[in-house]
Write a structure and sequence with these properties.
The complex is a heterodimer of chains A (about 350) and B (about 575).
Chain A (H helix, E strand, L loop, with lengths): L16 H23 L2 H23 L4 H5 L3 H12 L6 H16 L12 H12 L1 H4 L15 H10 L8 H4 L4 H10 L4 H5 L10 H19 L6 H20 L7 H6 L3 H8 L10 H21 L6 H18 L20
Chain B lengths: L16 H5 L3 E2 L5 E5 L8 E3 L6 E2 L4 E5 L7 E2 L4 E10 L7 E9 L21 H10 L12 H4 L10 E6 L8 H8 L1 H15 L3 E7 L3 H10 L8 E6 L8 H9 L14 E4 L1 H13 L5 E7 L7 E6 L4 H7 L9 E4 L6 E3 L12 E5 L18 H5 L6 H9 L3 H6 L10 H5 L6 H60 L1 H24 L1 H17 L2 H5 L4 H4 L7 H19 L1
Helix pairs in contact in B: 2-5, 4-6, 5-8, 11-14, 14-19
Classes of the chains: A mainly alpha (about 350), B alpha/beta (about 575).
Chain lengths: ~350, ~575
């Protein structure tokens, strides 16, 4: 009897790229729902638009590159990119912001570099940074966190706003938007107020503004699920959060009036989302254990530095892109000791009689 | 006993319930046995019988040519039908020299049978080792390294610990488990022989915690002679604990140095099957002509272990295991992680055949397109050698053979953990095998070209020297002639006169016979015209002249090797 000869191993593999990405998408659901609850239907509309654009552009690029479209789309990576991008931009951002951002993410940052696995930079963050620096006005319009039933805009009105770029008649942007906690802190400190004066406002909860806090909690839940399912490993999220919290704690202890608490920093902006979902993008991150710790810590530290002394209120995207650049170098210098080798050139552990 | 952990590894379902539920079947003698001559790691073995010869069971039919080699014996009595190339179980799928025996069913031992040594403990190490070599014993865990070599430590290596590797190599395989359950006495006898041979102080017998019955059989049968220095250790079943280096780490916390051997740590490690083979060889005088094989997998109906003669076709083993499932599409020799799929079930059982695994399409990875590596690092997390498999993969793809060695390619044990966890379904181990093979090939070529270069340079030097000597000689001669010229004019005059005379004679003769004269003149001139040639070849026109026919043999040869050397230089 004759047989096919395939190479080993001869058992069903444990994971697939598509499956890994599916787990990530699943883990994004609680945080996304929390964002929708506090910021309105715009969040879901953005997610749908961004995912749609991402998948369409991915299919077009793969077809242009004459690769099999079906199997490539089945890896679900374009969906993750689109979804993460959508969570990063303001919920009522006009559709063309999403389109331009996704085009940069998928076409430039991903496929011009060779597609999945070959992109040195996190595609979603490239797209986000492009629109952040290009359209500062649109990117600053964050609605005030409310609960969904109290939203000034219904589902249909939100769709209209996203598609037309202008609010329904009779509504003003100023009336429905509010500075994010990080913006508020920044402006407050610049205008000479203390941290406690800024956070004394009733909208603030125990760490940061109530809505943002809850969103952070739900992303944390998703992140813990990914850790539990071993889709991601602990090194990057933990190092990133400590990378933010340790310098924040240091300055906060030195001068609590001029510096917000570590908890405020961790739960404001995109730190939790970034720690578990963005910085953990394996393609653009470091791969060795120590490399990942340094990579995560570097992102955390850069986030704190840019937030405190830089020109932007939040900095997850910049920090991630900057650390993407050094990831290969980190990998090179943090190689683990191979079995039977010694670190310094002597005999391996336990050698000798 | 304090156990240690090795890095990474996988918890895999061992799937041995079915194959251990059936009793071990000793298979009959098939009509025809195809016995490959090289079944071990090392130098090839030469046939020492001829077509048409009658052979008896245990008669040597293949003679080990080198030190790292093992003899091959007739597994039963019969007639040598053919000696030639037949397909053998090897990842390459190529054919190799085999001795085909048409069996006579009598299974007779001849007078070549080795004498049983019931008094083996009176023999010294050298004689025991010779007996083990004589019997063609190789490591039966799958690697098939000649055992006698492993039992011959180099000077200065003090072997103090003997490790019995009772951890099954891979999931699905239960050959060692069943051997320990059914023949613990033979295994212990083999251990006693080796312990005596090596003079070890300590014996660690490791059994996986997934084999309680084997453990019970061993505990009940431990001979009193070994009780003081033998320790039965239950170890966690994490793949690849059955790897020698990982097992040593688990048991002792020590790592075998890269490029070294366990003997460098004073340890020697053998598989229970090997100990049984040693026991048979020494006590019964029976060479290695059969072995335990697990025939299993979802592709056969009744998984079980069989004792099969070397050379038995796989198909007969499968038949003994209830035959194929209708959906079977793959037959693997070895386990699911490191085994290789064979193209034909007519291939023979060899000394290294520990398992035949038959699978259906749904049991193996789908052959769909490979996804790109996403650098998830799962492979690095499970690598027992603490390598970075994804980096090795990129380097192998880029053919960056310097970097890949720097990243520890040759520390890879090819266990397949990385490929199993790869979400992109990349056959990583294939890439490492390719890179290793490529590096070995290049190394061989480099050595060859070094030899050629040396020869070329030597020849260049010789030609230059000859040229120089010739020039010197010529100069000396010229100088001498010049001196003479200046000294005696009368001599010159005499020569002149002689020439005149001869010319006159020539002219006189010309009238008589034209033909004879001209031919004599041309032969006289020939040596003059030829003599500069050998000197000229050395003057740097090598490449144009390479391989030019009609040159003297030694220079021609040197030039051809030089040409290959050249083409390699360009190829790089």
């Amino acid at each position: 009897m004759r047989f096919r000869t395939e190479s080993s191993p001869h058992i069903i593999p444990r994971h697939s790229v598509g499956g890994v990405m599916q787990q990530v998408l699943l883990a994004l659901i609680p945080g996304t729902l929390a964002m929708t609850w506090f910021f309105g239907w715009g969040v879901l509309i953005n997610v749908a638009l961004a995912v749609g654009f991402a998948v369409a552009l991915e299919a077009a690029m793969v077809a242009l590159r004459r690769r099999p479209v079906g199997p490539t789309l089945a890896d679900n990576s374009a969906i993750v990119t689109g979804w993460l991008f959508a969570l990063a931009i303001p919920p009522l951002a006009p559709f063309w912001v999403t389109l331009i951002g996704i085009a940069f993410a998928i076409v430039v940052a991903k496929h011009l570099y060779g597609g999945l696995g070959y992109n040195p930079f996190n595609p979603a963050m490239v797209g986000y940074v492009v629109v952040l620096v290009s359209f500062p006005r649109e990117m600053a319009l964050w609605p005030a966190p409310e609960t969904l039933p109290q939203m000034p805009l219904g589902l249909w009105q939100s769709v209209q706003t996203v598609l037309t770029g202008s609010l329904p008649a009779g509504m003003e942007w100023d009336a429905i938007t509010r500075a994010t906690p990080l913006d508020a802190l920044r402006e407050g400190l610049v205008s000479g107020r203390t941290v406690s004066e800024v956070t004394a406002s009733p909208v603030f909860g125990s760490f940061t503004e109530t809505g943002w806090e809850w969103i952070g909690n739900f992303f944390l839940l998703g992140g813990l699920y990914l850790l539990f399912r071993r889709v991601i490993r602990w090194e990057i999220p933990l190092a990133l959060i400590l990378g933010v919290a340790i310098p924040a704690g240091f300055f906060w202890i030195l001068d609590p009036d001029a510096h917000a608490s570590p908890a405020f920093h961790v739960f404001s902006g995109a730190v939790i989302l970034g720690a578990f979902f963005i910085a953990t993008d394996p393609v653009s991150a470091a791969t060795t254990k120590l490399g990942r710790i340094l990579y995560g810590a570097g992102i955390g530290l850069l986030i704190y530095v840019i937030r405190t002394w830089g020109g932007y209120p939040d900095a997850v995207a910049f920090a991630v892109l900057l650390m993407n650049m050094v990831a290969p170098t980190l990998d090179h210098f943090t190689r683990p000791r191979i079995y039977g080798h010694s670190r310094g050139g002597g005999p391996p552990p336990g050698a000798g009689p | 006993m304090q156990l240690h952990r090795f890095h990474g590894g996988l918890k895999l379902a061992d799937n041995t319930e079915a194959s251990t539920a059936e009793p071990v079947l000793t298979m009959g003698v098939p009509e025809r046995l195809t016995v490959p001559l090289c079944q071990h790691i090392g130098d090839p073995t030469e046939p020492c019988v001829q077509v048409g010869d009658r052979v008896t069971k245990g008669q040597r039919i293949g003679q080990a040519a080198g030190y790292i080699a093992a003899h091959v014996h007739a597994p039963t009595s019969g007639v040598v039908e053919d000696i030639g190339h037949y397909p053998v179980p090897h990842p390459s799928g190529l054919s190799a020299p085999c001795v085909v025996i048409r069996t006579d069913g009598r299974d007779e031992w001849g007078d070549t049978r080795m004498e049983p040594w019931l008094d083996w403990d009176t023999r010294d190490s050298r004689r025991l080792r010779e007996r083990i070599r004589e019997a063609g014993v190789v490591g039966l865990g799958g690697a098939a390294f000649p055992t006698a070599v492993k039992l011959n430590p180099r000077a200065g290596q003090n072997i103090h610990t003997l490790i019995v590797n009772g951890a099954e190599c891979e999931p699905w395989i239960s050959a060692d488990d069943m051997l320990m359950r059914t023949a613990p006495e033979a295994v212990f006898e083999g251990i006693r022989i080796v312990a005596h041979l090596l003079g070890v102080e300590r014996i660690l017998f490791a059994v996986e915690d997934s084999m309680p019955e084997a453990m019970r059989a061993l505990t009940e049968n431990t001979p009193a002679e070994l009780a003081d220095r033998l320790e039965l250790v239950s170890i966690p079943a994490i793949y690849p604990t059955g790897g020698e280096r990982q097992l040593i780490q688990v048991l002792t916390g020590r790592e075998v140095p890269s490029g070294g051997l366990p003997a460098d740590l004073g340890m020697v490690c053998h598989n229970p099957g090997t100990f049984r083979a040693i026991c048979d060889a020494v006590i019964q005088g029976r060479p290695l002509v059969s072995r335990m094989v697990t025939v299993t997998g979802p592709g056969v109906h009744r998984p079980r272990n069989v004792n099969a003669l070397i050379g038995t076709p796989f198909a007969e083993l499968v038949a003994a295991a209830g035959g194929y499932d209708a959906e079977v599409d793959r037959l693997v020799m070895g386990g699911p992680m490191m085994g290789f799929a064979v193209h034909d079930d007519a291939l023979p059982v060899i000394k290294g055949t520990n398992c035949l695994l038959a699978t259906r399409p749904q049991d193996t990875p789908s052959p769909g397109p490979r996804m790109p590596c996403i650098r998830c690092g799962e492979c690095a997390a499970v690598c027992p050698a603490r390598l970075l498999p994804q980096q090795l993969y990129w380097q192998a793809k880029a053919k960056d053979f310097d970097a890949i060695q720097d990243y520890g390619l040759f520390d890879c044990i090819e266990c397949g953990c990385c490929a199993h966890v790869c979400p992109s379904n990349i056959p990583l181990v294939q890439y490492y095998r390719y890179a290793k093979h490529e590096i070995w090939t290049r190394e061989k070529e480099r050595q060859k070209s070094d030899v050629a270069r040396e020869r070329y340079e030597f020849r260049q030097a010789r030609l230059e020297r000859e040229e120089r000597e010739k020039a010197e000689k010529l100069a000396k001669k010229k100088a001498a002639v010049k001196n003479k010229e200046g000294q005696d004019d009368d001599k010159q005059a005499a020569i002149q006169a002689a020439l005149e005379r001869s010319r006159a004679r020539k002219a006189a003769r010309k009238g008589q016979a034209d033909a004879t004269d001209s031919s004599a003149g041309s032969t006289g001139e020939a040596p003059e015209a030829d003599s500069p040639t050998p000197g000229d070849t050395g003057t740097g026109t090598e490449p144009a002249e390479t391989g030019e026919p009609g040159r003297s043999e030694d220079t021609g040869q040197a030039d051809t090797t030089n040409a290959t050397d050249d083409s390699q230089e360009h190829g790089r």
